[in-house]
TrEMBL record:
This is DYW domain-containing protein. GO terms for molecular function: zinc ion binding. Coiled coil: none annotated. InterPro entries: DYW_dom, E2_motif. Residues 88-128 form the DYW domain. It comes from the Eukaryota. It holds the Pfam family DYW_deaminase.
Amino acid sequence: MGSRKVQKQPACSWVKLKNQVSSFGVGDNSHPQSPEIYKKLDELKKRIIEAGYVPDTSYALQDTDEEQKEHNLWNHSERLALAFALINTDCHSVFKFVSGILGRKIILRDAFRFHHFAGGNCSCSDYW
């Protein structure tokens, strides 16, 4: 690739909110809300680790130690985009989109009821 001057484009993730598209790259600090985004990521990381999450660094191809691999995983563009969406939209909508895009079932409890997100829909039929 080097001899042919071929360069791989870095991966990025986009989020569209209020007709404005925000783009995030790995470890991106260029967004005006970067401090808030990384604060939200740290909060999420603490909460899911407390819930039993263990990062899978086996797919991290960088020749670095485990701590650096975990750090790199937490700064993926997708996670930055998710944190941005969480601090700028209502969480209910974000969880619906995440369940649909990732094909995951998510159960969330608010002060009044349990919400079961699956396939981009919620069990409360958006009554919340």
